[in-house]
Every structure is written in structure tokens, then in C-alpha cells.
Amino acid sequence: MTWPENPRTQLLPDSALVYPSVERLRDAAIQETLYERLFADNAITLPPPKRYQLRILKELVSRIESSIIDWDEHGISDNLMLALSHLLASNLPSEATAAQQKCYVTYHLSRLDGEAFEPHITLLENRSLISASGTTGLRTWEASLHLGQYLCANPHLVQNKRVLELGAGTGYLAILCAKYLHADHVIVSDGSDDVINNLPDSFFLNGLQGSEKITPMELKWGHALLGTEEETWNGGRRIDVVLGADITYDTGVIPSLVATLVEVLHRSPDATILIAATERNRLTFEKFLDVSTRRGLAVSYASFPVPPRTEQNGPFYSDEIPIHICQLRRNDATSE
């Protein structure tokens, strides 16, 4: 088994975790390695929540116990049992409270291995489906991770380009483009004040605080793009690439979203739009395609299926629901 020098974690559903084989689990040296790398004090720079640690460690100990045939020959690590007892004795929040608390999540960028030392993105996320403030933008969704993998496989799409991300949420894609894919500049936009206020933390965690390569911006879909500190929106500077992930799930906002896409293309006619859409509801996805076509946008698809979970090396995300990556451009032959 090989381990990174400084382990980092991505919180996964219990069903998605892969444990060592039975033979390895009952090996004393493997158990000590698991303890030292995952459960010892300060083993992980930004550890997951204690409730998550407890759940995983209980399952690990249970699997070790089940793997042992001869208790005279094998046993359970004293260190693992001590770590388990400490977690059990901790004053842990309830499941409901824990779901609303922010926690550190680190995504390993396996497609960029070799280009930087352990390339990764660390974010402070709210892991509940909808945060206490009512927004879905404080966690990173599967479509963002999948579109990120597509960009890592095709870095020329954003290299030296001026990028606008819509509905940026945690800023995962924007940080990826600014830090690793050599974008010239990235605008990280969202319509939620809570999301915008959370972005500086994300920038800080990834060494982008104060960087001129990335700029947060409040942008509400369907509203005219007007200048605030500058006379014109974005100072009149062009946009080369527009990114959006999991922003087509609500039929009620699709007309406003497409209106914003059309206005961006009016200002930057040669811009490419890449939208990653998780197909939770076929009718919702088809409405997005229909509204886009009626507003004069040509839609094509990237051939980039979600890899099977067993083939993922990070970031990890569900392979059960299709995620479409759509490319939209102005169709000058189509009138509104």
C-alpha cells in the first residue's frame, strides 16, 4: 500500500468507501499504518468531522474483527481501539446539527498527478443538501467534479482564457482554473450573498487570497449586466469561457439563466459555454435544451461519460446518474 506524505480527505458516503482486503485488515502492520495515517492526532492536516471519523472507524474495527480467524495469531490494534474509545467519549453533535455545520473537504486531482505536488482543492463546505440559509451553494456537487475532470483532461479550453463561472457555489471550478489550469482570469459569480461571503475562505485555503487571477462577483441571472465599480460590466473586458455546473435543476430559473447566457454572448460573441448537468429529471434537462435552442444557442455534447466508481482515483463522485457536458455557442443562423 502507498500513502501520501500528508493525507487529505474527501468525505464519501459510507457505501462508496473501499476498505483493504480481509488478509490486509488482520495484518498488524497495515492496522498501524491505518492508524498513523488516518486516526492519530494530527495525522490529517484538515480532518473530517469527528462524527464522520467515528462512523468510519467503527466500521473499520468491525471489519478487522470479522477478518480474524485465529485470535492467538492476530488481533486489533491497541491504537485503533484507543482512538475509537476517545471518539466514543467525545461530546459529538447530533446528526441534524452536524449536517448543518461546515467542515473541510479536500478533493484530490488525480488527472493532474505529476504536474504539482499532490494537486488538490480544499474547501469549507456545508455537507447537507440544503444549508440552514436555504442555499444549495455551500457544497460541491457531482457535476462540478465531473466538469472539473473534463477540464483537467482538456486544459486548453481554459488555459490563458478569461473565464466566468455561473452559480459557482464553493468555487471549486474557479479555483481549479485559476490555480492549476492557468486561466488568465476567473470571475466567480453567484446570486447568493451567503455563497459570495464564503468564497474568501475557499480562496485562502487554496493560496489564492489577494490573487489578481480570481474575482468574486454577485450576479443574478436574468438581470442586466451592469457595471458597479466600473462604468461597464466587467470593465468591458471579453469573456472567453463560461462555466456552469448543476445550475439547470430548477425549471423556474432556466429562462433567466439562458437570458444571462445570451447577454454574455452578446458582449463576447466568440465565447464558449460549458454546462455540466446532472440528469436527475429528464424533463428539466430537456427544458434547458429547448429554451437554449429557442434563444438562438446551438447545443452540442462532449463525449465524456462518468467513470465507474471503481476506476475513480479522485475526486470521487457517484456514477449512478448521467452527467451531461453541453457546449453552447451562438447560432447566428437562428433568430429568436
TrEMBL record:
Secretion signal span: none
InterPro entries: Methyltransf_16, SAM-dependent_MTases_sf
GO molecular function terms listed in the Swiss-Prot or TrEMBL record: S-adenosylmethionine-dependent methyltransferase activity
Pfam families, per database record: Methyltransf_16 (PF10294)
Species annotation: Diplogelasinospora grovesii
Record GO cellular component, one term: cytoplasm
Superkingdom of origin: Eukaryota
Protein name: Protein-lysine N-methyltransferase EFM3
